[in-house]
Amino acid sequence: MFLSAAGGWPSTTAGCATNTKIELATNKENLYVLDFDGAGATEHAEWVVAMPSDYDGGTITATFYWTNANSNTNVCTWGIAATAWGDTDNIDGTAFSADVTVDDANTASATNKLLKSAATSAVTIANSPSAGDLVDFRVTRDSAGGNDNLTTDARLIGVMIGYTRS
After folding, report:
1. DSSP structural state of residue 116
2. 130 near 50, Cβ under 8 Å?
C-alpha cells in the first residue's frame, strides 16, 4: 500500500510543510512532495487509511521514497509510527506506537534523484489493528537526532507500507 505525499498532511503540532506540487525543469514531471526541514527540527506528517480486507493484523514495514535538491552524501533519518481504530474505539484513546527509523543517504551524483530507503524493521501498530480498521500513520524526520546530517529539506514523495496478508 502506497501513501502518496498528495494524500498526506502536516501534523498540527511540529508538522512538516504542506504538501506541494512541484514541476521538474527539464521534462516537466509533476510530483507532490512533503518538505521536511533539515534545520535541526523534528517534523511529522500523517495519513489515515483503512487497512485492506486481507491484512492479517500483524506488523508492517515502511520504505520511504524521497528526493533532495542538493548533491551530497549526507544521511536522512525517516521514522514511522501508527495507531489503529476499530468500530466503537475512542479515536483519542490510544497513543502512537514507538517510532521505527531507517537511515538513507542522499546521492552526490546529481540533484533531484529518486531515493528509496531500505525497509524499516517491524512496526507494531498500536491498539491491536485488524483488517478494515482505520490506521493513522505518522511519518517523522528528526533532523536534530540520530544519524541525520542532511542540512537541507528532504522532500518526501511517499511511503510504501508492507504488510502480511491473511
Report:
1. E
2. no
For residues 164 and 58, is the Cβ–Cβ distance under 8 A?
yes
Query: Hey, what domains does the chain have and what are their CATH numbers?
Result: 2-165 (2.60.120.260)
**Tens-place pLDDT, residues 140-161:** 998 887 899 998 899 999 999 9
Task: From 93, 41, 69, 31, select the one nearest 152 (Cα to Cα).
Answer: 69
Phi, psi of 126 (to 5 degrees): -65, 150
Instruction: Give CA–CA dist 13/83, Å, rounded.
Output: 17
- pTM (predicted TM-score): 0.96
Question: Rounded to whole angstroms, how far apart are CA atoms 87 and 90?
Answer: 9
The full DSSP string for 66-116 is EE-SS----EEEEEEEEEEE-TT--TTSSPPPPPEEEEEE--SS-SS--EE
Residue 116 confidence (pLDDT) above 80 = yes
Nearest to 49 by CA among 38, 62, 30: 62
